[in-house]
Structure formats: structure tokens, C-alpha cells
Amino acid sequence: MTTPVPVVVGTGPVSAADLVAVARHGAPVVLASDALAAVDRARSVVEALAASPTPAYGVSTGFGALATRHIPAEQRRTLQRSLVRSHAAGSGPEVEREVTRGLMLLRLSTLATGRTGVRRDTAQLLASLLAEGITPVVHEHGSLGCSGDLAPLSHCALALMGEGTVRDAAGALVPASDALAAVGLAPVELAEKEGLALINGTDGMLAMLLLAITDLQRLLRTADLAAAMSVEAQLGTDRVFAAELQALRPHPGQAASAANLRRLLADSPVVASHRGPDCHRVQDAYSLRCSPQVHGAARDTVDHALAVAERELASAVDNPVVLLDDTEPGGGRVESNGNFHGAPVAYVLDFLAIAAADVAGISERRTDRFLDRARNHGLPPFLADDPGVDSGLMIAQYTQAAIVSDLKRLAVPASVDSIPSSAMQEDHVSMGWSAARKLRRSVDGLTRVVAIEVMTAARALELRCAALGVEAAPGTRAAVAALRSAGVGGPGPDRHLAPEIEACVGLVASGDLLDAVTREIGELQ
């Protein structure tokens, strides 16, 4: 197995590819020397403020509704420690390793901007946890998406203190102190402002947004493949996907999706078999004809979400934040701000859940047409081998329909909700973490719905080709072959379907299905 290339933090904004490499594929992290210099400079500002008799929020005061309390110097380290312990109040199931690694990377990226005032040892320790594969246990519930993802980030900060529970590189659940000692790391004793700097960011919701965008970019190309297979097997026309028609409504996502459909259906003997003057079908159903419009709108939504994510990646989200100014005593000052509010990220997380639900909805409608003998143009009812004795793919569509129904509920926005906290000091919150958690379920659901359409369309395509005595298009034929190689069976008597559905889900989720097709016809847009 190839060792992942380390991701260098502090030479510029972390990219989506960097995030995926660290979060999903275990790439280690190193801090750039310029970042360490920036960290040192900001720390000198904080230390000057700590020595000043003038109260500075986050340095020598309490937090939130307790910000008016001045904290004497001898209690400030206790203050930071107490902050992390009290805010590590998550509850519920453990979130996925990739989410926690993602939020740790993004918090480190903000620390590396030199705007938070942490010491270099603290930043280095966070980088070391990522490099050693030590992952703090973070829980499902606890973030309101404002003042940052406080509880999730606090569980990570707790591990830096050698407290709480983590998973080591092998995945074993161990005390943080033991995990640190096992790899030769010492816990940190947090100094002024460091506790606050470690927990005050949109890192959890942003990490989940970037992971979802990565998955959706692949899924929407796979949805185009599924639609092409359905159009071909249902004797649909490819003329509606012509570039000149798409140009009349110049949405970029629509143009890309239509181009994929044209490419996937190119050189299809099935499509050619009903293209002549004897074909009396004037228009296909919306679920076939409008696939580029729906898939394209989802693509454009993903592109908008990516633009928001990239702006957030270029941000230094903390409160208070260090502003460098050589005219100030100590070289700068600390200012309160509201940049931790998760609204920009929360909105697009909700937008993507809406897009996922709609793409799944049109996929399910295409699938259902195959199973209805009144609409499938000569195929057996439910694509069954012996209808009546066999049920074919009847219940696979039930599974699809159940998931689509769930996705509609998950599309209800979280970001329109708000609930006050911290004695009304924090009286409007984004619920971005909640939006991100439900989007992860939406992405999983869309994966399963598209997989079932692909499985259904593959069976229908084999039946259609056998009836016509021709082959499918090169691209769709490659998809069918990939399914069969993975143990997803073709037409025949009823058998246990659940394992075949899961095999197809695995092909879609991993990108292996798409890879098999692109090896045959080239990359899709």
C-alpha cells in the first residue's frame, strides 16, 4: 500500500483535495515554517495583552454570557482547561473518523494563519495527532453551528490535554493519555486564549460539506450513467439531449449532463433500432427527457456550494481574533467578531440536501417505469423471469421509494431553525452541524437509489438487447459488465436481492462503476 503524501498546512488555504486526503485516506500533516512564524507572532500579541491590566476578551475574561468577569493571571490556565472540559459535552453516537480528522485539519489550518494566538507547541501537537492517526471521540449531538462547532472541537481539544477518549491508529478505543504516550507525545497545558482558539470555528460542518461535495460530484456523473442506461433500455430518444437544444437554456450543469448522456448513448444499436420513420413515439416521459435539467441543476448547486466552501477555507474563523498592527503596543490587538456564525455553510448544506432528494426522486421514477408492463414497452412485468411465480425487482423499487421518502424529509432545512443559548448572549445560531449530519444521510441515500436504478436498468438492457438481437452502447455495456463481474446477477429466476443491491451500492460509492465506464469511453464531465 502506498504511503499517503503529507499535506503541508500553512502555505495557503487547504484545498478540498487536501481535506479528502487527510480525512478519508489518512494522509499525515506537517506545518509549514512560515505558518509557525505566523503562529509565534500572533502569540506574542496575546502574551502582551495577558500582561496588560486592561481586560481582553478570551485572554483575561470569562466567555459568552460570563465575558464581564475579569480573570486574575493565576487562574487563566485553569480557565482554559475548564473551558475545554465543560464544552466537551457532546452526546450520542460517535461520528465518523473522516469527519473528526477533517475538522481537526481545518482547525489546524486556522491556527496556522497566525490569527488565533496559540503557541506553536499546541499547533504542532494537533498536527502530530493527525500524523499519528489518533482520532478523538466526537459525538453526534452538541453543536448549534454558532460560536463554532463548540462541543465537537472541544472533544478534540480535550485529547490535546491528554484527557477524554480517542481511537488510536488501529482503531482501538483508548484513553487519550495512553494514546499520546504510546507514540511519544506529551499533552499540552493550555495557556491564555488557547482553549478558545481550539474550539471556535465552523470546522466540523465545513469538513462534512467538502466530503459531501466530493461524493456528489461523483454521484451526479453516475446518475447521468443511470439515466443513459434507462433511456436506452426504455427505447427513449437521445435527440432531446442535443447540444443545440441545451444551448437555448445555458445552464452549465445542464449542458454538462446532456453532454454525458450523448456520450454514453453514442453508437448505441438499441437507440438506432427505433430512430427511423417507423417510430411513432413523439416524446419520452419527463423522468427520461428532463434528466439533464434536473441533474444539471444539482450540479450547479454543488458548484455554488464549492464556491462557498472555498471562501470558508480561505478564512480565519475565531473569536476573538488577533489583528496584527505594529503601531499597537505588543504588535497587535484582539478583536471580537461574528465570523464563527455558520450561516454561509449551513445554507449550502441544506441546498445540497434538496438537490440530493430531487435527483433521487427522478431516479426512482425512471426505475419504476421499467417495472410497469404498461410503460416499459414490451419488457416483462417487474422484469421477472416468470411473472406471477417470480416477483423480479418489485421490492427493489420499494426500497428505493422508502429511501426517496426519507430524503424528502431530510431536505427540510436545518438552517431556518434557531434556538437561543448562553443566557441569550448567543441568541441566533445556524444549526449548520445538524444540516451537515443530515446531508451525510442524504448522500448515502442518493447512492443507494442510483445503485438500484443502475441494477434495474442493467437487467432491462440485457432483456432489451436479447429481444432486439443487438448490443448496448459501449459505455452502458461496460457498466453492465462491471455489475456482472461484481456478482450483481442478470435476468433469471428470483434470488436473494439484498446482497446484489449492496454490491451495486459499493460499486457506485467507490467510483469503481464510473471508472469501468470511463475506461471504455473516456472521462465524463
From TrEMBL:
Q: Which residues form the signal peptide?
A: none
Query: What Gene3D superfamilies does UniProt report for this protein, alphabetically?
Result: Fumarase/aspartase (Central domain), Fumarase/aspartase (N-terminal domain)
Q: Which domain of life is it from?
A: Bacteria
UniProt subcellular location:
Cytoplasm
Any idea of its EC number? 4.3.1.3
Q: List, alphabetically, the SUPFAM superfamilies matched.
A: L-aspartase-like (SSF48557)
Q: Which reaction does it catalyse?
A: L-histidine = trans-urocanate + NH4(+)
* Pfam families cross-referenced by the UniProt entry: Lyase_aromatic
Q: Keywords in UniProt for this one? A: Histidine metabolism, Lyase
Enzyme class comes to: lyase
Its predominant location is cytoplasm
A molecular function (GO) held by this record is: histidine ammonia-lyase activity
Pathway the protein takes part in: Amino-acid degradation; L-histidine degradation into L-glutamate; N-formimidoyl-L-glutamate from L-histidine: step 1/3
PROSITE patterns, per database record: PAL_HISTIDASE
Which InterPro entries did the record assign? Aromatic_Lyase, Fumarase/histidase_N, HutH, L-Aspartase-like, Phe/His_NH3-lyase_AS
Stored NCBIfam families: hutH, PRK09367.1
Entry-linked PANTHER family: HISTIDINE AMMONIA-LYASE
Family (UniProt): Belongs to the PAL/histidase family.
Protein name according to UniProt = Histidine ammonia-lyase
